[in-house]
Amino acid sequence: MNKPSVSVIVPVYKVESLIGRCCRSLFAQTLENLEFIFVDDCTPDRSIEVMRSVLEEFPQRRDQVKVIRMDRNSGQAAVRKRGLEEATGEYVIHCDSDDWADIGMYEKLYSRAVRDGADVVVCDMYRSNGTVHTPFRSGFRSEGSYARDVVAKRVFPALWNKLVKRDLYSWPFFEHPDNDLGEDYAIMAQIAVICEKVSYVREKLYYYYTNPASITKDIDRSNIVARYRSSFSNILHVEVVFCSADIMKDYYLCVEAAKISDRFYILRKYVKDPEIMDVWKNMFHLMHPVSNLFNEEAQLKARVMSLLVEMHIYQLFI
User: Fold this and answer.
1) Angle between the 76-86 and 183-194 helix axes, to the nearest 10 degrees?
2) Where are the alpha helices (DSSP H) in the chain?
């Protein structure tokens, strides 16, 4: 059997009502030479059974499907790592099991990769509630700025709209993150700084399902703090890797910009809460708000608003 052109990694956990739509979009792809790796994170429902039922509608795909079951429920970061260990394709891409893809997505991305000799190919997407599809850009500006844009969190860090040459994961300094929230950033930041060629397909090819039951929608204080700490830990993960690879000096301001972005965009709605403000301050006790303001790698909005929070002005308007 020929080596797959693309390996598609699909984490599976509690998506019984949604995975059928995802699988139909994957098995109907116009690119024939694919490998599908479903990583069962010990899902307690019938998600895998639903996947197998849909697979019966696409008999030509049966030999292209692998199902890997984790020994225990391990979370998104571990599941992505396990999927990558099983992948054999020339390129790798991820697809979340509550999302779905345009049926021509992988052919378009792979064709562009081959045409340009690209290590990474990026496309745009839709945010969707299942009925209404809202266009959403990846944030791609240029090939020359891409690495710094990713590290500084100026572009959407998700893995599912980026086709990545599998060989890049063999970089000697590459380390898989352990924390689940923000794990896509920790992976893509490492990939972005080592890839030699990035291409952009200016089409919306992926449908990102905005599930109201998602953990990222949970506004309980403890979950907000846990989400922030996890995401912050993944920025520190990138920092450690960059130091090991002796490239931190080149990306220091970008990494600091990612911290500014996280602090503002995750915590901004809750800064009236004294406990949230304690977290805000304690995680950045070495960073002066004025120095943040002049870090041009960070988004201007995040810099200005963060300073207003520090001055207790922003809180008056939310």
Assistant:
1) 40
2) 19-27, 47-55, 76-86, 105-116, 146-151, 183-194, 221-244, 248-267, 274-282, 289-293, 300-310
pTM passes above 0.85: yes
Q: Quick check: helix, strand or coil at residue 141?
A: coil
Q: Label residue 235 exposed, middle or buried (CB < 10 Å: 0-12, 13-18, 19+).
A: buried
- How many whole angstroms from its chain centre is CA 164? 12
- Reported as a single tens digit per residue, the pLDDT across 55-106 is 999 999 999 999 999 999 999 999 999 999 999 999 999 999 999 999 999 9
Rounded CA gap, 124 and 205, in Å?
A: 6
- The burial of 151, by beta-carbon neighbours within 10 Å (0-12 exposed, 13-18 middle, 19 or more buried), is given as buried
Q: Which of 285, 290, 273, 286 shows the shortest CA–CA distance to 222?
A: 273
Distance CA 71, CA 11 (A): 14
Give domain 6-209's CATH architecture: Alpha-Beta Complex (3.90)
The partner residues of 28 in beta bridges, in order of sequence, read: none
Residue type, 28: A
